[in-house]
Amino acid sequence: MKKRLYVVSLGCPKNRVDSEVMLGVAESSGYQLVDDPSAAEVIVVNTCGFIGSAKKESVDTILELAEQKESGACETLVVAGCLSQRHPTELADAMPEVDHFLGSSDMLRLGDVLAGKAARMLVGNPADWLVQASSPRTVTTGKASAYVKIAEGCNRSCSFCVIPQLRGKQRSRSADDVVREVEELAAQGVFEINLVSQDTVAYGRDLDKAARHGLASLVERVADVPGVRWTRVHYLYPEALDDALLELLASHPRVLPYVDMPLQHVSDELLRRMKRGHGGDRIRRVVERLRKRVPGLVFRSAFIVGHPGETDAHFHELCEFVAWAELDRVGVFRYSDEPTSGSFTQSDKVPARAAAARHRKLMSLQRKIAHAKNAALVGQTLDVLVEGTSDEHEYVMMARHAGQAPDIDGQVYLSGGECAAGDLRRVRVTQASDYDLVGELADEPPIVAARRGQLRDTAARKRVSLAVVR
Ligand code: SF4
């Protein structure tokens, strides 16, 4: 009987791509992917480790799944990813129940583990890995959508961030290799491509002159792959975006007017302490220029509250900015005091209670903006990508419109009619909540009908193979 493997993927979409590579390695090693950890002989926890809460979630998940070695079929427990990369020795000493440790660049070493010829500690150099079109990979994001990692690592030194320590320096894939992967995905029916990396705006700058075409040229080539309908760009650093990229966001029919740009703060003092390399005026100019140039723009961002040195006045300035900018999607993080980060040695740490209060205040300010923007969609007709049955109720299907990125933005719950996961359908919005919508299916055939049995039917397999903790 085939041996069975269960993977849980923690953290960001870039880590999810790595989990999908490990699924691909397992499948090509003859393993069956299961969604019940108690049935798996091999369990892999692909960890996240960039801030305190993520580290805690990773440790809790490892300890929880380690119990399967007593109560389930588990013979081998593997810990991979950023936490493993960051604290290999401490984890190995503290967790005798873990059989193998892989780092953030060691996905392919899972093959040695499954072949039973691997040492316990397999954490290598974070700069050794760059996914390729030829890498084994089992896509788990449904029938019509996929993340495509275009680069790995980051050359910046934001003082609160340890990601460059966990992922190494920036290294971009060649545009030809990215396009080859997108062609393969599109040939299997995927029409939504989410381009991800740590520092997407810097894509290609590390490639040699001949291969350096920059992000805009890559985005255009991806969007022009036959079958691709939605191209979305994630993790843009707040730099002055070049005209070519703005033009694509504004007018290319298959590049979504969607910008995911973590701004972190707007106060000059805080941005200086964060070593972001720019002040608040740059940020206001970038927002204004994007709003002016890109009709129907959906702007997602993220902010940190409670960074050392943040006063009530700085926080008030941030709230004023968020009220002015009226961003569509906002994530708010409380500063995490990471010992190996530059901010750790800074003075004027903010008490946890004050940071928590600021987090609540900014989230509630943004909730009102999000609700008003959602309410404005009631009565409108939108195209939606059907994702599958909702987590809430098996008879309710859920979908996303072009302004909703997978895993991080809201959903459109569907009413009135039948549809299938992977379809692209037209709906009329009938209700809105803070982050979600209800859409009535138009009485017409799908714009794109999901192909049956494509991608080895990954939607079903998704329920089988990859538990994602967001
Ligand atoms: S751009 Fe800054 S915050 Fe983002 S991964 Fe690089 S160092 Fe971290």
Structural overview:
The protein is α/β, with parallel strands linked by helices. The protein has three domains: 4-128, Methylthiotransferase, N-terminal domain (Rossmann fold, 3-Layer(aba) Sandwich); 145-375, tm_1862 like domain (pyruvate-formate lyase- activating enzyme, Alpha-Beta Horseshoe), CATH 3.80.30.20; 381-448, OB fold (Dihydrolipoamide Acetyltransferase, E2P) (Beta Barrel). 33% of the residues lie in helices and 21% in strands. It has helices spanning 13-28, 52-66, 68-71, 82-86, 88-94, 110-114, 163-167, 175-187, 214-223, 243-251, 268-273, 280-293, 312-325, 352-375, 458-465, and strands spanning 4-10, 32-33, 42-47, 76-81, 100-102, 121-122, 145-149, 151-152, 171-172, 192-196, 230-233, 255-260, 298-305, 329-334, 381-389, 397-401, 412-415, 424-432, 437-441, 466-469. The strands form four sheets. Strands 1, 2, 3, 4, 5, 6 and 20 form a seven-stranded parallel β-sheet that branches. It is globular. The structure holds iron/sulfur cluster. Residues 154, 156, 158, 161, 163-164, 198-199, 237 line the site of iron/sulfur cluster. Residues 154, 156, 158, 161, 163-164, 198-199, 237 line the site of iron/sulfur cluster (SF4).
